[in-house]
Specification:
alpha/beta; Aspartate Aminotransferase, domain 1; Aspartate Aminotransferase, domain 2; 7-stranded mixed beta sheet; globular
Length: 457
C-alpha cells in the first residue's frame, strides 16, 4: 500500500493551484530581510507598504475597541460604512449611501470575490499590480492585456482597448470586465480626464463592468487631480456598470489591520452584485476585524484632523517619489514623472548594451543583479505583465521602485520621529524636509549605473 500522496497520479493540486506562487512583492521583501540579517547593505525599494505612523485618533480608536471580539455584520460596521459613504460622497461629488458599501478584510479579497461572482473574461492594462493576473486565473477567467503608452506605461487609447477586445472575441472569450488602477501601481501615473472618458465610453459601448481599484486615490500630487479624477467621479458613478474598491492600507499606513471596501452602484446592477458579494463573504471571511473596523470609521471621517493627515501623507509621498524620479533621471534612466501613489517605474534600457554584455536580458535578471551586486531591491517589470522582449521599447529592463521605506530605518523611528515628520509636511516647504534614506537610495542607484557604465561593450 502506498502513502496517501501516491494516490495522486501527478499532483494533489488543481490546475489553477499549480500555477499560483508567492506574490513577488512578498518575495522581494523576504529577500531584503534576509540580506539585512546577514549584515549586508540593502536599499528597500521593492515592497510597497506605507510606513507612516497611524494618525493618533485612529490609533486610539483601535485601542479603545481592542476588547471587541464579536463578529460584526457581514457588510461591515454601520459606523464604518457611514464614514466611507460620507467621505466618498465628498470625494466623488455624488451621493453615496452606507447601503452601497461592503467591508472586507482588505480590498484584495473583494477583488477575488468580484472576479469569482461576475460573468465573463477580463481586460487588464499592461502593466498592472502583481496580484490582478493571479486573481483572474484563480477565478478561472481568461485575461487579455490592454497595451498602454510606451513612454508612461499608463495612458490607454481607444485603439488599444478595441484591439484587446477584438483579440478576446477572436479567441472565443467573453470580455465583460475591465480593471483599472489610478494612481497606478506600478507606474505612479494618474489617468487624465480624456483617458477616463475614453475608458468609460468603451465600457458603456460594450456593456463591460468597470472595476476601479482606487486604493491610492488620496495620494495624488497635482492640485488639478485632488478631487479624484476617477471614472466613478463627477456625479457619474451610477451610469454604466461600475464598482469601486479601496481600503485602509495605503493612505493610512495600516495594511496589517486588513480593512477594505467595495462600493456598488445605487442601481439594479449594484443591488444584484452586492447581494452575491455578501453571500460570498458570509461563506469566506465572515467579517473584518472588529477593532480595525472601529478605527477605520475614524480614519475615513472628514474631520479637520483626518483631512490634515491625508494632506501631510500625500505631500511627503510627493516629495519622496519625485525626489527619486529626479535622481533616476540624473542617472540617465528612462522614467515618467510620478503623479500619485509612491512608485516610480524606470527603464534601464539606456544601458541595454552593457546589460547584455553582463548576460542580463530580462527585468528579473536585472532585479537579481541590482540586489546581489548593488544592494538595491526592486521588482521586475515582468511581475506586472511586462514582456521581456522588444515589443515595447525598454520593457525588458523596467523595474518598479517603491519609496515607502525611505522615511524611517525601523519601527522605533517610525513612531519616535514620524509625527514630527508629518508636522513638517504642513509647516515647511519640501526643500526643508530632510529624507536621508532617499539620498542613500539615489546614491545606491547611481553606484549601480556607474558599474554599468564601466562595462565594456
Amino acid at each position: 500500500m502506498g502513502s496517501h500522496g501516491d494516490n495522486f497520479a501527478d499532483s494533489p493540486l488543481t490546475a489553477v493551484a499549480q500555477q499560483l506562487h508567492l506574490s513577488p512583492t512578498l518575495q522581494i521583501n523576504e529577500a531584503s530581510r534576509l540580506r539585512a540579517e546577514k549584515g549586508l547593505p540593502v536599499v528597500r525599494l521593492g515592497f510597497g507598504e506605507a510606513t507612516f505612523p497611524i494618525q493618533k485618533d485612529v490609533l486610539a480608536a483601535h485601542r479603545d475597541a481592542s476588547e471587541s471580539t464579536s463578529y460584526l455584520p457581514v457588510a461591515g460596521l454601520l459606523e464604518l460604512r457611514q464614514s466611507i459613504a460620507a467621505f466618498q460622497s465628498r470625494r466623488l461629488g455624488c451621493p453615496v449611501s452606507a447601503s452601497q458599501v461592503v467591508v472586507a478584510p482588505g480590498s484584495k479579497p473583494l477583488l477575488f470575490a468580484l472576479f469569482d461572482i461576475l460573468q465573463g473574461d477580463v481586460l487588464l492594462p499592461r502593466p498592472s499590480w502583481v496580484s490582478y493576473e493571479p486573481q483572474v486565473a484563480h477565478a478561472g477567467k481568461k485575461l487579455f492585456w490592454v497595451e498602454t503608452d510606451a513612454v508612461d506605461r499608463h495612458t490607454i487609447t481607444a485603439e488599444s482597448l478595441e484591439a484587446s477586445y477584438t483579440k478576446a472575441l477572436a479567441e472565443g472569450a467573453r470580455p465583460r470586465m475591465l480593471l483599472i488602477n489610478s494612481p497606478s501601481n506600478p507606474t505612479g501615473r494618474v489617468f487624465s480626464e480624456a483617458t477616463l472618458q475614453t475608458i468609460t465610453a468603451f465600457c458603456d459601448a460594450h456593456e463591460i463592468v468597470l472595476l476601479s481599484d482606487e486604493i491610492y486615490s488620496d495620494i495624488v500630487f497635482d492640485e488639478t487631480f485632488t478631487s479624484a479624477p476617477s471614472p466613478c467621479g463627477n456625479g457619474a458613478f451610477n451610469t454604466g456598470l461600475k464598482i469601486m474598491t479601496g481600503g485602509l492600507s495605503k493612505t493610512y499606513s495600516a495594511g496589517g489591520w486588513r480593512v477594505g471596501y467595495a462600493i456598488v452602484q445605487d442601481t439594479a446592477f449594484g443591488t444584484t452584485v452586492q447581494k452575491a458579494l455578501l453571500a460570498y463573504a458570509s461563506e469566506c471571511w465572515s467579517a473584518a476585524s472588529s477593532p480595525a473596523q472601529a478605527a477605520a470609521a475614524v480614519a475615513f471621517s472628514t474631520t479637520p484632523a483626518m483631512d490634515n493627515y491625508r494632506s501631510q501623507v500625500a505631500r511627503l509621498h510627493r516629495q519622496c517619489a519625485r525626489g527619486l524620479y529626479c535622481g533616476l533621471k540624473e542617472c540617465g534612466l528612462d522614467v515618467a514623472k510620478p503623479q500619485g501613489s509612491f512608485y516610480v517605474y524606470p527603464s534601464f534600457s539606456p544601458y541595454a548594451a552593457q546589460l547584455r554584455a553582463l548576460g542580463i536580458h530580462t527585468s528579473l535578471e536585472l532585479s537579481h543583479w541590482l540586489l546581489q551586486e548593488c544592494g538595491v531591491a526592486a521588482l521586475p517589470g515582468s511581475a506586472f505583465g511586462e514582456v521581456d522582449d522588444d515589443s515595447v521599447p525598454g520593457g525588458q529592463y523596467r523595474l518598479r521602485m517603491a519609496t515607502s521605506y525611505l522615511y524611517f530605518k525601523d519601527e522605533a523611528e517610525r513612531y519616535g520621529t514620524g509625527y514630527d515628520l508629518l508636522a513638517k509636511a504642513t509647516s515647511k516647504a519640501d526643500a526643508d524636509i530632510s529624507l536621508p534614506l532617499l539620498r542613500e537610495a539615489i546614491q545606491a542607484v547611481h553606484t549601480a549605473v556607474e558599474k554599468l557604465k564601466a562595462v565594456e561593450v
